[in-house]
Design brief:
It contains 9 helices and 11 strands. The protein is of the alpha+beta class and about 325 residues long. The strands form 2 sheets. Strands 4, 5, 6, 7, 8, 9, 10 and 11 form an 8-stranded mixed beta sheet that branches. A 3-stranded antiparallel beta sheet has the order 1-2-3.
Length: about 325
């Protein structure tokens, strides 16, 4: 019905029942086209639908084509029915709002979970899994002393010279290719990459999870690292070479930093392993006497000589040649 002739346009402006037994006898509606012409509406009773906060949102109308009288109880029934309709509409609106709120909550939770997963993935790439879990649970990591751990240091011989001749992209791609392969080898042998510094690569066995065969795992890794590097093509006419040092002993492990976490190791064991690398030769795996004693039954080793180690004096060292058949 067009709004300008609808009887309910009067009802919605009221606060109570609009009751007209015969529209043709009411001067407000006698000339209404709906009354004077087809469909010739006669009876009308309508109740505005008013929300609890006072907004009229529609009407509940009853019509007939004959004159009718409503009893007081019938009129009250229309009032009650209108309130029930409003209640149902309000419940529906509340349900829609609740569903919308639940969806927003679920979307927010999914977004938070996605961000948490990204953070967990990033933490797992930066820190050992057990250390990342400890930081998530406690917000910090308690330093630990390990009676025994193995340390591997390596560096690419002549890398500094390559930085003077290779384009930056080529240089970074080369280093990324080598270190990514080292990461794969470390994961295969269940040892932990600690850090890279320039062209140096540090790995530890027996931390942060203690093990009994960490020396053997690190020795196997060192051999695979050398094999991989030896198979690389020439770069600018130069064959890259790897120098590796191995040592085993006690270490202290912990996390430093708050905004940027770093899992690191400290102690003489780390220093001696670094000395084994720096006193080594290109393409060789330099082994300390302590490491030699741990792996000599399962690997082929060659006595090198006595070398002076800063703070430790003369030390008999060995070359790791390969695994015994």
């Amino acid at each position: 019905t067009p709004r300008d002739i609808a009887v309910c346009s009067h009802t919605i402006c009221q606060s109570d029942l609009l009751y007209v037994p015969d529209l043709s006898e009411d001067e407000r509606f006698a000339d209404n086209p709906l009354v004077s012409n087809a469909p010739n509406v006669r009876f009308y009773a309508g109740m505005p639908l008013i929300t609890p906060n006072g907004h009229a949102i529609g009407t509940l109308c009853t019509v007939d084509f004959e004159k009718k009288e409503l009893s007081i109880s019938q009129q009250e029934a229309l009032r009650r029915l209108s309130r029930q309709v409003v209640t149902q509409l309000e419940l529906r609106r509340a349900l829609l709002e609740m569903n919308d709120a639940v969806k927003k909550r679920d979307d927010m939770y999914a977004e938070l979970q996605s961000e948490r997963d990204k953070t967990d993935t990033l933490m797992a790439k930066i820190l050992p899994k057990s250390i990342a879990e400890e930081i998530k649970d406690n917000g910090k990591v308690s330093p630990r002393y390990f009676d025994e751990a193995s340390i591997l240091f390596s560096d690419i011989v002549g890398f500094t010279k390559l930085t003077e001749t290779l384009p930056p992209n080529t240089l970074v791609d080369l280093l990324d290719q080598i270190f990514c392969r080292f990461d794969t080898i470390a994961a295969k042998h269940g040892v932990e990459k600690i850090k890279t510094i320039g062209d140096s690569y540090m790995v530890a066995g027996g931390v942060p999870v203690a093990s009994t065969d960490h020396c053997h795992r690190l020795a196997q890794m060192a051999l695979m690292m050398q094999q991989f590097v030896n198979e690389q093509p020439l770069f600018e006419g130069n064959q890259i070479a790897l120098r590796v040092g191995l040592h085993t002993g006690p270490v202290i492990a912990g996390v430093i930093g708050k905004r940027k976490f770093v899992y690191d190791l400290w102690g003489d064991t780390v220093n001696i392993a670094a000395r084994m690398e720096s006193h080594g030769l290109p393409g060789k795996i330099h082994v300390s006497p302590t490491m030699y004693e741990r792996i000599k039954d399962d690997f082929a080793l060659q006595y090198r000589d006595l070398i002076e180690v800063k703070g430790k004096g003369a030390m008999a060292t060995y070359w790791l040649l390969g695994a015994n058949p």
